[in-house]
Amino acid sequence: MKLTAEEQDMLQGAYGRAVQKAMQILVALGTIYEAEAMVAVSSVQVAGVSYDNLGEAGLEFLEEMAGGGGKVRVLTTLNPAGMDIENWQAMGIDPVFAAQQQRVIDAFTRMGIIPTCSCTPYLFGNTPLFGEHIAWSESSAVCYANSVLGARSNREGGPSALAAAITGRTPCYGFHLEQKRYPTITFDIKVPISGTYAFGVLGKVVGDWMESCSPKPVPYLMGVSSASLEELKSLSASIATYGGAALFHIPGVTPEASCFSPPEEKIVITRDDLARAAESLNDVGEEQVDFISLGCPHLSLREVARIAELLAGRRVRKTFWITTSRPVKRIADSMGYTRVIEEAGAIFAVDTCCVVAPIKGRFRALATDSAKACFYATAKNGFKTRLLPFDRVVEEALL
Ligand code: F3S
């Protein structure tokens, strides 16, 4: 790779051990992917925050980077942790786990990372503009940033994202390059899609089709006439989970789509395709559900407000987690939404989610509107799942 003089100095250790280690990681990555040079990044989002996923080895790496003088050069936020940092006791988190999780957060904070643990950083200020080069690692957020915001990111691993934050660079390959952003396959959707649930199911259908493809195609989704922020975040999460997609285009909805014509290879998606996909994520009836969660990806303020509206004056009968970011929760506090939701008996699980929290074995079956959450509820925690539209999920908690 061709490095600038400053990048060479980083690699030689002139900026300290942590910067040197970070540049070594990036050069190794760039060499594997045949990047010709580095590109400067303006924003980073680091995944691999939950101690449940990191373990002792991951924690040691972070403490070594913090101890070696690692400091971030650009705006950097974190993916969800394994617990609500301020209210972990209410989630039933083991104190030993909580102590280790806090060490993880402390190591990140020492490096200058904003300890806002969320997969929707674009909702509260880590919001790149069109064309900005960034290094994000949460798959749903990468897909949203590329597709909806028109920013440019590969799907980074935790260490490579941290290395990008410390150096302000990332290897210039993949979605940083114009020619890799062209759509390569058309999906013609023959049925109206509406709501986070339906967009999640659509992401599963497209993702399942892409799953075995190598290299991954860039889908061009025809037939979607409009989509809200919440619907696009649901689609981004689902299509990334099931198909490994990091970029899609929707004409009339996403910003780069108008630059391209629909690719010739075309797959038609019918009502039956969507129904089959939805059915595959519904393996229990309501009587078996003992855990409800909304907020995968983390809820927007509009979604929290809707939950408050639906729960006002009512009482939930099952464990119901509301997962969102700390900044959204703070606004919900000041608007009175939190009080209404907590009076109904639901629990805010801020900074975390039903996938990264250590809850294996605690529940039998999850009800959610998120196709992504269904995938991991089964794969990681062994739960059965019930996928429902957003409002129906709230109703399920009241049964
Ligand atoms: Fe976010 Fe957790 Fe879902 S990180 S996208 S809420 S699995």
| Strand portion | 5-15%
- How many discrete structural domains? 3
Helix share of residues?
40-55%
SSE pattern, N- to C-terminal: HHEEHEHEEHHEEHEHEHEHEHHEEHEH
Mean pLDDT rating: 97
Distance between the termini: 60 Å
- Helix segment tally: 14
Secondary structure category: alpha/beta
What order do the strands of the largest sheet run in, or round the barrel if closed?
A: 12-11-10-13-14
CATH architecture name of the largest domain = 2-Layer Sandwich
| Small-molecule components bound | FE3-S4 cluster
What integer value in Å does the Rg equal?
21 Å
Give the name of the CATH superfamily of the largest domain: Aconitase, domain 3
Q: Outline, from the CA principal axes?
A: globular
For the largest beta-sheet, the strand count, sense and barrel status come to: 5 strands, parallel
CATH topology call of the largest domain = Aconitase, domain 3
Residue runs with pLDDT of under 50 for 5 or more positions: none
CATH class of the largest domain: Alpha Beta
User: Could you give the count of β-strands?
Assistant: 14
How is the secondary structure organized here?
Elements: H1 5-12, H2 17-32, E1 38-40, E2 43-46, H3 51-67, E3 75-78, H4 95-110, E4 114-117, E5 135-136, H5 139-149, H6 158-167, E6 169-171, E7 185-189, H7 195-210, E8 219-222, H8 229-243, E9 266-269, H9 271-280, E10 291-299, H10 301-311, E11 319-324, H11 326-335, H12 337-343, E12 347-348, E13 365-368, H13 371-379, E14 384-387, H14 390-398
This protein binds FE3-S4 cluster.
